[in-house]
Structure formats: C-alpha cells, structure tokens
Design brief:
Order of helices and strands: EEEHEEEHEEEEHHEHEHEHEHEEHEHE
Shape: globular
Length: about 350
C-alpha cells in the first residue's frame, strides 16, 4: 500500500496561478496503476486551462496539471493490466470511457461520451480535469493507457504524448496527399508541436516541407529539424510560398497556431483540392461558404490529440532516432517559472518539468 505524500502543481482557482502543494500519495485500486513521474511536459493547452473562466471547461477544481507524462510503474491495483511494476512508460493523455467503438479501437481522443453533456464525467484526461503528472506520482485509471518506452530518456519521452502524438495525428490526416516529392506541405508555427511535425513529415513522407514562424529562432529550429525552407510572415509570404510550389500552392497546410492571420495565410497558400488541418487554438475563425475564399475542393480537419496505436508509432520513431524534442528542463519546484516563460512565448520547443 502506498504511504507518504506527493508534491503536485495544482489548479485551485480558475485564472490561476497554479500552486505547488503536498498531497497524500494515491493508492491504486481495481484496474488503477500508480506511476512514479520522471518528467512532465508543459504546453499552451495548460495555459488555456489555467486561464479559463469559471464554467468555461467541463472540469471541477482543484486538480493537478500536466498532461504529458513519462515515468515508471510504481504500484498496480489487484485487477490491473498492462505494464509491470518497474516498467518505464508514457501515459496516453485522453481518457475515454474505454468501452465505446472509438475507445475500443484505441481512439479515446474521440470517445463517444462527452463531459460537456455527461455531468458524471470529471474531465477529459490526465491533467485535464483529472489529476495529472506535474507531480511526484500520478494515478492512471487503467494499464491500457500506458505505452512502454524502454530506455528512452524520460525528458524526451514525456512530450511525445501530446506534442509528438498530436503532430503525428495531424500528419496522418493528410498523409494520402503527400505521396510525391513534388508535393509541398506548409507548417505554420514551429513551436512544441510544429518542430516535431517537421521531423515527422521528413521521416514519413517525401514532401517538400515549408515552415513559417514569427520568431527567427524558430526558423533556425525548423531548419535543424529538416525543413526545406523557412520564413517569417511578411506581406508577400503567400506569394513566396506559392513560388516554392511552382505557383500551384501547397497540397496541405498544418496550422499549429490557429490565429486569424495564420488561417488567412493557410487559405492563401492552399491549392485547389488541398487539405487544411487546424491544430492550434489561437482564436481564429474561417468562414465556409460557396463560393468563398476557400479554394475549391478544400478539405478541413480539426484533429484532437491522437490514438494509442499512433502513440506507439511515435515512441518507435523516437527510439529509432527519427524524432528528437527540443526541450527546456525545469524542476518541479520551479514549475511556475516554466508557466511564466511559456506565457511570454520564450520557450524554445517544449518545457519539461522533472521531480527534484
């Protein structure tokens, strides 16, 4: 039986700031698994959660933040399945019902039960209404939500569960369009997700990868990750990108920003019959109208996270050396500093918190 306490970064009131506090260490029962946290990633989604107005999200406070988690199995409930005690794992983030058709296929990110409609549900996943991994330990409902990582470094492994998985899921959404090396895909935003999307595109497709970001250091990161071309957004950026595609436009745009300006650029560079994947939650909007600004035949997708089989493939890519996360490391005691740097847009790649 677990004894002692665990430190955790908790959201105790909407609008924050988060609070580092001490709690009793959880005891796993039934199918539950207790994981000793080795690393937890931090992303802008955490800021959206912290900044939400009361009633804006279907979560009840307080809860521990942190939805990108890597660690080691510490204890198992009596009916637990999956990885054994001592095995190193990452935690699959979206926690569904485990029973509907989507969940049964490993797509708990698209669970048919919705917490905004079902008030019995207390959240959508680890660190999202349920206690997360920005702590010494995290209690996981079932071993089905754990993916082994072997000897992969925990600081590298944790961001794979969202930044890596969401980027991979976004790339697979347009994979059928990226068969030829003459095709071009535009990545808007080379941050925590975007820099991994560039690597995934280079590792899994032959497409020309064009990147856009407002920061010079992000353009350098895009080149380091394998982008064929990277540029700051300027008044002529759409024309410059189209020129790189012989004037026809990109077959796909992966928008990891989601602002009004990024969506406008996405529409301007997309070719007829192209695919727009809106991943970022920057508050932008698109008007869908025929006829309208969207190129004819445009397909739009709004991916959310990814599936368990996709996470397994992302972990495999990382273990093969095809994926490397650019990280800034913080201790659990300095986690609030990581929040401040992220809010200021100063983090290069991904902020990762480790217990100290």
């Amino acid at each position: 039986m677990s004894t002692g306490s665990t430190r955790a970064v908790r959201l105790t009131r909407w609008g924050g700031p988060p609070v580092l506090t001490e709690l009793p260490r959880p005891v796993p029962t039934g199918e539950e698994v207790l994981v000793r946290v080795e690393a937890a990633g931090l992303c802008r989604s955490d800021l959206h959660v912290v900044d939400a107005a009361p009633g804006g999200l279907p979560y009840r406070i307080p809860f521990t933040l942190g939805h990108e988690v890597a660690g080691r199995v510490l204890e198992r409930g009596p009916r637990a399945v999956g990885p054994a005690v001592g095995e190193r794992v990452v935690v699959y983030g979206p926690w569904g019902c485990g029973r509907c058709a989507n969940c049964s296929a490993g797509a708990e990110n698209y669970c048919d039960r919705r917490p905004d409609l079902d008030r019995e549900l207390t959240g959508t996943g680890v660190g999202l209404g349920r206690d997360g991994g920005m702590a010494d330990t995290v209690l996981v409902p079932s071993g089905r939500l754990l993916v082994p990582v072997g000897d992969l470094d925990a600081v590298q492994a944790a961001p794979l569960t969202d930044a890596g998985l969401t980027a991979y899921h976004a790339v697979t959404a347009v994979g059928r369009s990226l068969g030829g090396d003459a095709n071009a895909v535009v990545v808007l935003g080379v941050g925590g997700l975007g820099h991994l999307a560039v690597q995934i595109l280079r590792a899994t497709t032959t497409a020309q990868v064009l990147a856009v970001d407002v920061r010079e250091e992000a353009l350098a990161l895009a080149h380091a990750c394998g982008a064929h071309f990277a540029t700051l957004p300027r008044p002529d950026t759409a024309q410059v990108l189209r020129a790189r595609t012989s004037g026809t436009g990109a077959v796909a745009v992966l928008d990891f920003v989601g602002s009004r300006s990024s969506l406008e650029l996405a529409v301007a560079v997309l070719r007829a019959g192209g695919e727009l994947v809106a991943v970022g939650s920057g508050g932008g909007e698109l008007t869908v109208r025929k006829p309208g600004a969207l190129p004819p035949g445009t397909r739009i997708s709004l991916p959310f996270w990814g599936t368990v089989p996709e996470l397994e493939r992302v972990v495999a890519l990382a273990r093969e050396g095809a994926l490397r996360v650019e990280v800034e490391r913080y201790t659990l005691s300095s986690a609030l500093e990581a929040f401040d740097r992220l809010r200021a847009g100063a983090v290069r790649g991904r902020a990762v918190v480790v217990p100290d």
